[in-house]
Amino acid sequence: MNETKIYLNTWGAYNEGCIGYGWMSPEQAREFIEQDEERDGGEWFIADIDNYTGVDFGSLDYCNVMDIIDTIEILNNMDEWERKEIAALMEYLNTTDVQDAIDKKDYYIIYGDIEQYHDCCDESIDFGNNELLERYFDYDAYHRDCDFDIYEANNGVCILG
């Protein structure tokens, strides 16, 4: 994965016509702010995020910049699958608050796709030694019933909540 970059500015500098302080890694952005927190009025904002790992932060205009930097660092430390889970959970929760989805992730059962979910459902069926019953069992109808309890996100990840 390429490194996520943040484009920082302050409202004071922006109002004076400054387009910002350039692209920085989250670590560089944190250090830059800490060098002079009151630079150009000190009202920091993130003008843009490059390569933000597929997770939408929503509006960044009046957010806490350090919180966003912390969240980006958390996302950067996740693998691709975990970031897909977060994006799916944000869709499921209908939120643009990435940190909220990260905080709530452990409250949900998340499957890679609908087939993986169906496999888990199938494992819960116990026919005992009745092969006749197993032969006539309608798995398609059973899966349709199971699907009432699952949310399938646009990226294919399935959430049971």
Please characterize this protein's 3D structure.
The chain folds into 2 domains: 1-76, no CATH class; 79-161, no CATH class. The protein has helices at residues 11-15, 26-35, 65-76, 80-93, 98-104, 114-123, 131-136, 139-146; strands spanning 5-10, 23-24, 44-50, 109-111, 151-152, 158-160. A 3-stranded antiparallel beta sheet has the order 2-1-3. The protein has a 3-stranded antiparallel beta sheet with strand order 4-6-5. 17% of the residues are buried. The chain has 161 residues and is an alpha+beta fold. Strand 5 (151-152) and strand 6 form a beta hairpin. It has 8 helices and 6 strands.
> Which structural class do you get from the secondary structure elements?
alpha+beta
User: What is the average of the pLDDT values?
Assistant: 88
Q: In which order are the strands of the major sheet placed?
A: 2-1-3
> How many alpha or pi helices?
8
User: Can you count the beta strands?
Assistant: 6
- Tell me the radius of gyration: 22 Å
Helix content: 40-55%
H-E string: EHEHEHHHEHHHEE
Low-pLDDT parts are none
Largest sheet: 3 strands, antiparallel
What is the approximate shape? Answer: rod-shaped
First and last CA, distance: 30 Å
Estimate what percentage of residues fall within beta strands: 5-15%
Q: Write down the domain tally.
A: 2
